[in-house]
Batch of 2 targets.
Target 1
Amino acid sequence: MNNFLDMITLVNDKINGFVWVTIGLWLLIGTGIIMTFVTGFFQVTHIGHWMKKTVGGVFQKSAHNKKEKGSVSQFQALCTALAATIGTGNIAGVAAAIVIGGPGAVFWMWVAAFFGMMTNYSENILGIFFRRKNKDGEWSGGAMYYLQDGLGDKKRPRALQIIGKTLAIIFAICAFLASFGIGNMGQINKIVLNVQSAFFSNVEVAPLFGVLPTIPFIIGFVIMAVAALIIIGGLKRIAAVAEKVVPFMAVLYIIGALIIICVHFNSIIPAFLSIFKFAFGAKAVVGGTVGAMFKSAITQGCKRGVFSNEAGLGSSVMVHSNSDVKEPVKQGLWGIFEVFADTFVVCSMTAIVVLTSGYIDLETGHFIDVAGVSDANLVAKAFGGVFGPAGEWFIALAIFLFAFTTILGWSHYGSKAVEYLINEKAVIVFRILFVSFMIVGALSTSSLAWDISDTFNGMMMIPNLIGVLSLAPLVYRLTKNYVDRKIHGKDEKPMLSYFPEIQEEHEKKVLEGEE
């Protein structure tokens, strides 16, 4: 049995390395660069517009009002997407990037996010353009639909139709499998470990039924019960919870981080200087070379950035497509903001907290080896250094909320994958199965399941990015159409949907001023 597991581990490591490092990371960055040029550096040239329509729109009633059955508001769609992306990667992931790749990794995390903004934008406008209503009257959209109907358009050669449909199925299968690992059991496992470490580290309880670890089982069972009440209720209930929890947890975390940064005020400028100094391998690392440090900084920064904001994976498209918005580009603007909030705000706060904590030598870029401190608990120790034990408890709570809301978001992604592969009736079975697997994650100690699901997560992005790149001309036309009408005031017919009947319905509402 051990030999069999070793073989699976070896095969998965090879596939994972190929998917994420050999091809995936560069495909992600390359796609972001291409889409940035295709849209005319939209994230920069129209920064005032998208900030006004997103950050400014948060305080407008239209962003919160749901206007039609089977949809969620634009803000709810954003919060649900952020629920799945703002997770443990924003805390432990950023710390790991700095420990492994040095302070320069933060710079490359920003670079990946800068271009990732337009990848996420492109995914979301394609998701809205190719979405359709299912039998329950709910919007269904995502990479599988723009692969099937965009790349695989019936007007295209038969070979492309087959390729489009095949890639759509591969994407949906990988999304379904990843939802159980990265989006479920892996998150529950992190919650249990952190809660047990923070609150029950000195508590010894006899195994339940003589076999099951009692504390992990109780924690897992309680979380499973709460999650079931939300997930079984479907997207509307998930979105309602996300709308309240995500802003609360993000703002609270940012406030805590700002307090720590202010306490370490004298280290702020040196921290920023170290980010830019080591971004290009300014000094050699012990036992290595400038080139090795440079490569590590790029790899860790880009990889952690992508892991955090998920731009290019095609995951958040499935919830953005449920928005009640009519204009594809309008929802795409929220996609830009999603990456901005996740990486440039939350991840950057974590990075500065780590760099000003005293655990990183800003002169050499090295992690200072202190007993009991590792990349896994580095942020908690930084908070504890200012707030005492309460700081570490706060990070445990933050990880709990981050991971829990990630589970809620991924439950929707998995349900949409099942809906595409089977039908709407199968979704309720998936949700019950999804909730049941939480207890498995709570009790599990093996990392193999998470490693395999991480591979499937990465495999989602390859068909998705093929779809985005193949439809780049459409992204250009949709963007130009929106800019000409909404920014330059030209009188042109809006491009709203791939389907004539939806185009006609939405066009009427847009022209009547409902959006």
Target 2
Amino acid sequence: MNDFILGTNYWASNAGTAMWHDWSEKTVDDDIKILSENHINYIRVFPLWSDFQPVIPMYGPGGVIRDYCLTNEKKSENPYYLDETMLSRFDTLLDICNKYNVKVIVGLITGWMSGRLFVPPALYDKNLYSDEKALMFEQKFIKGFVTRFRHRKEIYAWDLGNECNCMQPVKNRESAYTWTIMISNAIKANDATRPIMSGMGCEAIEGSWTIRDQGECTDILTTHPYPLWVSHGSKDVVSSIRTLMLPECLNKFHAHLGGRESLVEETGTMGPMICSEDDVAPGFAKVNLMACYATGSLGMMWWCAHEQTNLKTAPYTWSKCEVELGLTDKYKKPKQVLKEFNNFAEWLNESNLNLPKAHEDGVIILTEGQDHWGIAYMTYILARQAKLNMGFSYANDKIPDSNIYLLPSVQGTTIMNDDKYKLLFEKVYNGATLYISNDNGILSEFESFTGVRVVDSDGKQTAGTISLDGSEIPFVQNRRLILTSIGAEVVAECDGNIILSKYNYGSGKVYYLNFPMEKNLINSSYGFDGDYHMLYKHIFEKTDSAVRCDNKYIGITEHYDNNGDCIVIAINYSKNKQKTDILVNPKYSVEKKYMGDTAQVEPYSSCVIKLKRRD
């Protein structure tokens, strides 16, 4: 079996979050059996904090805490205030998973779930990230639970808990970091044999809960790329290229900026009020199973295993959005999304494909003051449409070596630290190609590396169109820079003003775009149905690729082995059949077809071929 994780987040079908109190071994066995039969090989489970550590303070004279007990004044049988009945039920769950050969990811501090807090009574009024009492009981929970189950081979990984950053507001980044490293170290102190996953879906480079801090404190990063909830994810329909590319892009964003491998730990389309569950939702799953596989995710896990329309407890009685998200319907019959998981698993098994890491063409460098995720997301999609597979970097981190750099929609006066700024232009001078688009950013020594001069500027919003390689590309400038060439080639202009220029800088090249194309696309509906990507294609026309494909709805990844042979994965990011007319570089010949047709690709489907390098 391929190592790619095919999974789901699991609550028992009869009870949801109440499963540990309303325990039904038969139901859990039946649930896991159905999932296993459909090749779900991993589940993420949650020992609900308020159930497993139902600690209650006992007060003496003067309102001073005299002791602690469990629910109904029951004395704890262990020093960790863990409920032995619940621990026994978790043992049974693991036995069932072992029976069906299903691996388990355990979300440890699950005090937040589906819009409801599940916190032990003793901690109701406490700051869960900094209060001494809260930290003590969290440490006890970790030590007691991990020690109890660390011998169980069914457990693949621990994660910190379900979206722990959502439990309550955190004071600052220092508090978020300290809490994260404390929980992580507590897990490692009691079990150093398994990876620790973040369990959060942060999008932030800056702020309190950051991707880089999570990467430093844990072993595996996690993303929760729901189009409905992730910033900028639902501007276009679910079946659009913009929305379909969300999971792979967010996952790469985490992996590159956090310096860790990343898992799409939760995703889904959030039910039949968002899109059709007969067509669009399974299409979303189908595209992203292959896309996550091709772009290096550790796997993909759906939210969630079973429908919860029959449940009468909060949060299901509170939120109508939480009850129709299952891989099976209310009768536990597999829905079409689960069938797509099953089909993909069978293809992985049958193809027995050993997929090398995808080749990356260049780096998207994100700068200070931006909407980092929004700019990254828009740039990534444009690049994929232009058949560029890009990585990510933050301007003030180490700049990776590359032949291609994109500095999209720079804004403000800081941009990046001076040492990194000089290093970037040194790399360009030595042969790299740099693309810059401007959103009212101030770039020092601007003339020296662009070959254009600012004659004047104003705050007038200006719109126009440029012609490029037969495409008409509209633009909007939020601040107008009036430019003249002092050595640059004028590639495109409008009304006498330079819009795109090209300049030979040392052995490298600098392309300057006089409007913030990527930022403008953030709030533009269906912008990716236009020809904006042709700008990237013009600048970074690839001549050494294993294949050529000009269809903007087809994404290509190339996976080269040590012999120079290449596996090509072409994904159709649309609901329509797409002609690909894939042209194979004469240096290669088609050795094997693993999936699909090189002439056209069915809706949401893929073509996978192996190319042999000619001697």
